[in-house]
Amino acid sequence: MRHPWSFRIVIYVWLEPFSHPFLSHPFLSTTKKSTIYHINSPKSTMISFFLTTLIFLRCLAFASEHEVTRMLFPELIVPVTQAFPNRAYVSEHTGNVFFSGDEKNGDEVTALVRFRIPDDKRYDTCQLIFELPEELPPALDVPEYRWSFTGHECILDVFALCGCHKIVAEKTPWNLKPPRYPPKPIYRFNQSKRGGRAGVIGVPFKCPLGHIMEFEIVAAMRDKPMMLHWYELEKPRSGIMLEMFRTGECYQGYFGASEEEDWDSDFEDVDLNIPPKARAKVRGNL
After folding, report:
1. Where is the Ubiquitin 3 binding protein But2 C-terminal domain (predicted)?
2. Rounded CA gap, 98 and 218, in Å?
3. Phi/psi at 44 (nearest 5 deg)?
4. Does residue 179 lie within any of the structural domains?
5. Is the whole-model pTM more than 0.85?
6. Which of 83-87, 165-169, 251-255 ranks highest by mean pLDDT?
7. Domain-embedded: residue 30
8. Contact 104, 202 (CB under 8 A)
9. Where do the DSSP E strands lie in the chain?
């Protein structure tokens, strides 16, 4: 009588030396013969558990080595204020964007952010993401971590900054922020007032492995007032992020270049290497 906790393990014993059951299955070949044994001892349970554990651990290791995406968070978030053009600020955990609705007021506040791209050759493509939590867990539901928005629409433009000089905390005021390159936004985020992942116009770009990337986040609507404040968090995700992934994997909310538009072969600090046609498409939607 079979033990109640035992498993039936079927072992194929191949009569021909060096044959492999996955390459020469007995039910697919008429030239091979096999003998089937049924092991019904309690030890089979331990053997099955041991083998299953080994397979599970190997799958975990494989998943860790082959992550589909890698999320990066800013190394620096430095505010700059037009009203105090020579005042430099420390790097903060918060981001602030403000615009009064009139360029003549000269009181705009923008956020300068820096990402350090690791030299991780598992990934070759990057894209920017903006997200605000719909709700915070009880431990974080305090004023310090809450985001707030005032205005008609929460629409943000993101400019890439050239590599001619870098953002330096406490040394980069409004008057010394790096120039924008290209001169038009590369991303536009439309953030729901309820939170969640922002809708976006923009294209993925080739990851500059081993380099840094710097951006400026500004109010997109230049005829309406708005103010946005957020605290950069990893769990739940809150703020601006840079996602690394492999070519061919594009995520919801993004459109990419067509197949005939190849990425540039070499990265330079002053260029995102967005294909010309794709860049024109982005600019045409802004």
Report:
1. 73-232
2. 8
3. -65, -30
4. yes
5. no
6. 83-87
7. no
8. no
9. 9-14, 34-39, 69-72, 76-81, 94-99, 109-116, 125-132, 148-151, 154-160, 187-191, 196-197, 199-201, 205-206, 212-219, 226-231, 239-245
CA distances, 237 to each of 59, 73, 234, 276 (Å): 27, 10, 5, 32
Of 204, 210, 206, the C-alpha closest to 117 is 210
- Alpha helices by DSSP H, listed for 105-240, are none
What is the count of structural domains for the chain?
Answer: 1
Residue 192: pLDDT band by 50, 70, 90 thresholds? very high
Largest Cα–Cα distance in the chain? 91
Domain assignment present for 259: no
pLDDT of residue 275: 43
- Token pair listed for 216: 């400026």
- Locate 115 and state its tokens: 């990402």
Query: Which has more pLDDT, 165 or 130?
Result: 130
Q: Can you give the residue range of the structural domain that contains 198?
A: 69-245
Q: Quickly tell me which residue has 């903060």 as its tokens.
A: 92
